[in-house]
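tokens incoming
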């Protein structure tokens, strides 16, 4: 699978009193990368809910915090599909400091496709399955 990447700037609101990104900030950055990856593939999550009747929910997140990101730094946040199942996929993600590319954080996030009304697992719509299989 290809690696998708977005740029992120660390804002003051992302940091704690010491100017370091608060741990939940890294999860938000990863979420943005997955959302932008879907968008780049032609899918908006609100349209998937309204037109296909499915939502994506995080089932599990494993995060390794390696080095701190700090206020006003530029980061690169990646997403790469690691595993695809009928109703879930796992996404390997990294957050790197730019421009040197130093790895600050790694994550493995399992995302499940669910029926928007019942919140039970649902098979991916065919177009999403195609994106997961062939695009990055």
């Amino acid at each position: 699978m290809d690696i998708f990447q977005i740029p992120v700037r660390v804002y003051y609101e992302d940091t704690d009193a010491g100017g370091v990104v608060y741990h939940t900030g890294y999860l938000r950055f990863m979420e943005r990368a997955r959302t932008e990856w879907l968008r780049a593939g032609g899918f908006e999550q609100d349209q998937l809910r309204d037109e296909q009747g499915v939502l994506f929910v995080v089932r599990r997140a494993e995060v390794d915090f390696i080095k701190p990101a700090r206020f006003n730094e530029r980061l690169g946040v990646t997403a790469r599909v690691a595993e695809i199942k009928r109703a879930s996929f796992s996404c390997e993600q990294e957050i790197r400091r730019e421009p040197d590319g130093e790895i600050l954080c790694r994550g493995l996030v399992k995302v499940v496709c669910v029926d928007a009304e019942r919140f039970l697992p649902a098979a991916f719509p065919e177009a999403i399955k195609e994106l997961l299989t062939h695009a990055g």
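note: The chain has a mean pLDDT of 95.
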